[in-house]
Design goal:
single chain; alpha/beta; D-Maltodextrin-Binding Protein, domain 2; 2 domains; 5-stranded mixed β-sheet; 10 strands
């Protein structure tokens, strides 16, 4: 009986020691996050990581309205800078990865045409993330304008709330989409082939997508460990495997 009582005490003691770290994460990182958490938990088994995925602009609004996040991993540098300048972060924005744009469709297309492909009459709907709240959407619009096709395809655009929803739209509500290249490295996307279903967007058409992170004001002490982990060789290896460039 004493041994059972001791076991119960130890169990509840460990449960009380476990800490939950809440992350506000740009939707494009969702595809790599499971592996990042698993790697982190190898050395921090009692820390639970709870990510919330959305567009960076929406996450900024949540943070400003008091959402209890510990870390903000954004899809560009402007949004975490806004949080830092508002006094809501204790660290300056630092680049943790660079994202890239890719064409994607469940249909097969001749991607050798590049941006001109989007002007083809067979393509009626083009999915992109909302450029007002999602940096990948803003990058897509920038690429259209750089290629001088924006006015030709503007009426074809279908706006998703986030880059992850853009991936869904590209297989359902649209003929093609401009998505985060990292999504293509997910096991769920293995049925789609490079050159047939997807291709990289020429990176000279848009500014590098520098993704920034900040530690938020009032963050739990354990959050500092995950913040440091983001810049570790282990985390960088995972991000690279998901198609991100490293600063």
């Amino acid at each position: 009986m004493k041994r059972l009582f001791f076991t119960v005490i130890v169990f509840f003691g460990l449960a009380l020691q476990a800490e939950t770290i809440r992350l506000a994460v740009a939707a494009n990182v969702a595809f790599a996050m499971d592996e990042l958490i698993a790697e982190f938990n190898k050395t921090h088994p009692n820390v639970k990581i709870e990510p919330t995925f959305s567009s960076s602009g929406k996450l900024v609004a949540q943070i400003k309205n008091g959402a209890p996040y510990d870390i903000f991993m954004a899809a560009n540098m402007a949004f975490p800078k806004e949080i830092y300048d508002s006094g809501l972060a204790t660290t300056k924005p630092i680049i943790y990865a660079q994202g890239a744009l890719a064409f994607f469709s469940s249909k097969e297309f001749d991607f050798s045409k590049g941006m001109e492909l989007l002007t083809d009459p067979s393509i009626q709907k083009i999915a992109i993330a909302n450029p007002k709240t999602a940096p990948y959407g803003a990058a897509a619009v920038e690429a259209f304008k750089s290629a001088k096709i924006y006015e030709k395809i503007e009426n074809k655009l279908v706006f998703a709330e986030s880059i992850s929803q853009t991936v869904n739209f590209a297989t359902t509500a649209a003929d093609i989409g401009l998505i985060n290249a990292s999504a293509l490295y997910s096991s769920k996307m293995s049925e789609y082939k490079e050159g047939k279903n997807w291709a990289m967007v020429e990176d000279s058409l848009y500014e590098p997508i520098d993704q920034g992170v900040v530690l938020l004001k009032g963050a739990k002490k354990e959050a500092e460990s995950f913040y440091d982990f983001i810049f570790s060789n282990e985390a960088k290896k995972i991000m690279k495997e998901y198609g991100y460039l490293l600063p």
